[in-house]
Design goal:
Blueprint (H helix, E strand, L loop, with lengths): L1 H29 L2 H9 L6 H11 L15 H4 L2 H5 L17 H36 L4 H14 L3 H15 L15 H31 L2 H8 L4 H21 L3 H6 L2 H7 L4 H10 L3 H29 L8
Helix pairs in contact: 1-15, 2-3, 6-9, 7-9, 8-9, 9-11, 10-11, 11-15, 13-14, 14-15
């Protein structure tokens, strides 16, 4: 197990470096510091002196990769790449355009993002897996038919409709929960309950239909027929055997959600005024704050790689036949 984890971590390092290089190229080669200065200062009537001053204030006046004027190690460290990209591996994301420390902002905003994302993930997984098992248990019946119809109808509706409709119906019409904002401590629950409920409902149709397909595929296999031949009830076969074997593809799909647990939902946080990482990213894009956007791209890549490693390890917990030491 330890050897496997070390191998995967070693594989992850060049991938993360590659993502960092591609991101750097997009922000500093395709979109040069001069272009950034013009977008920040305004394209019309911007002077070369103003561009040079803007670049000097932010450290964008240095060479990209190699500083021929510096001596020794300074030839590599006194560059834009080292100051703006390489330092991210040490957790130093620099400062935003407004002067605030990006690392401090990320740490402070992670709590609100997790307060929304974790309940949405846990409740959504419980609701969709349970509903899929129920539809499979009553497969080829009217309950199964209308359940699939409902899932297809729900997944055909845009997530933005659920947000706006939920805010209008629950927040404005019924006045059961605040439409936007966030509170400190235990007061935060009343601001979280509506976005969590909308998050669960908006993803219910697609996830339930997908899990139903997985369980239907498992229920037609030989080990299920053997379990029935031994006298096990349909419920025992479903929950003891089908659910366990169906967890492997489910875990693979869960990987895509892991970065969102930490980085937040862009739409949900923006519409509900939650000061999390999702709204932080949207605000940075709107303000053309390239330092924040680069930091969020890097963090998202690192979290996704970590999720892949955790998923491979979790396979051994649901399927002992899989060995990671080989």
């Amino acid at each position: 197990m330890l050897a496997y984890l070390l191998r995967r971590l070693l594989y992850a390092i060049p991938i993360l470096i590659g993502v960092n290089l591609v991101t750097f190229a997009l922000f500093f080669v395709v979109n040069t510091p001069d272009d950034m200065a013009r977008m920040q200062l305004g394209v019309k009537r911007v002077t070369p002196e103003a561009i040079a001053r803007w670049k000097a204030e932010r450290g964008y006046d240095r060479p990209l990769f190699i500083n021929a004027r510096a001596e020794g190690i300074g030839a590599l460290t006194d560059t834009i790449f080292f100051a703006k990209s390489a330092r991210m591996f040490a957790g130093d994301f620099g400062r935003a355009e407004d002067g605030r420390d990006i690392t401090r902002e990320i740490v402070s905003r992670m709590g609100p993002s997790l307060a929304v994302a974790l309940p949405t993930f846990a409740l959504g997984l419980l609701a969709t897996v349970s509903s899929a098992l129920l539809l499979v248990f009553f497969r080829a019946t009217r309950l199964d038919f209308w359940g699939v119809v409902l899932c297809v109808a729900m997944m055909s509706v845009s997530g933005l409709f659920y947000i706006i409709g939920g805010q209008f119906l629950v927040g404005k019409l019924w006045r059961l929960a605040p439409i936007s904002g966030f509170g400190d401590g235990l007061d935060a629950w009343k601001f979280v309950i509506l976005p969590v409920a909308i998050g669960v409902v908006s993803g219910f149709g697609a996830s339930t239909r997908w899990y139903r397909t997985i369980f239907l595929e498992e229920i037609g296999k030989d080990y299920v027929r053997t379990a029935r031949a031994k006298g096990l009830s349909e419920a025992a076969v479903l929950f003891r055997h089908v659910l366990g074997n169906g967890l492997i593809p489910i875990l693979t799909g869960v990987v895509a959600v892991i970065p969102l647990l930490f980085m937040g939902s862009l739409l949900t946080e923006s519409f509900f005024g939650i000061p999390g990482l999702g709204s932080y990213t949207i605000d940075a894009i709107a303000a053309q704050d390239f330092a924040v956007v680069r930091a969020m791209v890097f963090i998202g890549s690192a979290l996704y790689i970590a999720g892949l490693i955790l998923t491979d390890v979790s396979y051994t917990l649901v399927d002992p036949r899989i060995r990671l030491d080989g």
